[in-house]
Amino acid sequence: MLGLILTILVVGAIAGFVARLLVPGRQDMSIVATIGLGIVGSLVGGFLGYLLFGKDAGDGFLQPAGIIGSILGAVIALVIWQMTQRRSSAHV
To answer: By Cβ atoms counted within 10 A, which residue in 15, 19, 25, 91 is the most buried?
Structure first.
């Protein structure tokens, strides 16, 4: 159980940091928020991977495709977050 939690945190951190590198613009996020972004990205990427390919965690948690899916999911989540931030700051 502890190994699973550590794996989720490490993959979340990697996915979050890579997503922040790939998405242009300034993101005012703490390290904890970046890890959270990566974890959300892993969930989004895993859901999309399941919908597209029918694979799930039963096939193994640490796979190259899973890490790439986590990064892509984190990029999607970051772009949506940036769009909501711009929209909310424009209405103030």
So the answer is: 15
Residue range 52-69, pLDDT digits in tens:
777 655 655 556 667 888
Residue 62 Cα to chain centre, angstroms: 15
Inter-helix orientation angle 64-90/2-22, to 10°: 60
User: pLDDT, tens digit, for every residue of 8-35?
Assistant: 888 889 999 999 999 998 888 899 999 9
Q: Quote the radius of gyration of the chain (alpha carbons, Å).
A: 14
Return d(Cα 28, Cα 82) in angstroms, integer.
10
Domain segments of the chain as ranges:
2-90
Residue 45 to residue 29: CA distance in whole angstroms:
21
CA distance 73 to 65: 12
